[in-house]
Design goal:
By secondary structure, this protein is of the alpha+beta class. Helix content is 33%, strand content 15%. The chain has six helices and five strands; from the N terminus they run ββαβββααααα. The protein has a five-stranded mixed β-sheet.
């Protein structure tokens, strides 16, 4: 396809705490922008139809399948990918829990699973193992590590709810 006459669209994003501006064709998905121009390959391309969850990232703190979002619709948004959650030396609590519970096998789905799990905890809707499993059902694991994934999320939820809540006046 000849793209030389395609009008480009300006988009500015904050990705993993850094600000970026791009001029891109209007059909570029967030997934393709992340993996291509930004070289953030932790976010995986699975089905490219929003059915597997491998491409899950956080957009303004909410979990979203990045293959379904056109990048131009996200001007001004804050995006967090697996690379933005933590580093090997300073892991996010969810990353630590996945390691501790061996909540991965081949690892392909793991970045999307972790981003989705972080979003799930932020949403505050999961109060039981059954709710965790239901709310994570959009993230598929072909290796079948679901039990360990649920264990990891339960641990992080337990830690989050065990934290003392400060009064507004403190």
């Amino acid at each position: 396809m000849d793209t030389s006459r395609t009008a480009l669209c300006a988009v500015s994003l904050a990705v993993n705490g850094r600000h970026f501006s791009f001029d891109i064709p209007p059909w570029v998905t967030l997934l393709d922008l992340l993996r291509g121009d930004m070289e953030l390959t932790g976010t995986k391309k699975g089905c490219d139809h929003g059915q597997c969850g491998a491409c899950t990232v956080l957009i303004d703190g909410e979990r979203v399948n990045s293959c379904l979002k056109l990048a131009v619709t996200l001007d001004g948004a804050e995006i967090t990918t697996i690379e933005g959650l933590g580093t090997p030396d300073d892991m996010h609590p969810m990353q630590k829990a996945f390691v501790e519970h061996d909540a991965f096998q081949c690892g392909y789905c793991t970045p999307g699973q972790i981003c989705s799990a972080v979003g799930l905890v932020n949403e505050g809707h999961a109060r039981s193992r059954e709710e965790i499993r239901e709310l994570m059902s959009g993230n598929l694991c072909r290796c079948g590590a679901y039990t360990n994934i649920a264990d990891a999320i339960e641990d992080v939820l337990a830690e989050e709810t065990a934290l003392p809540h400060r009064e507004a006046a403190e």
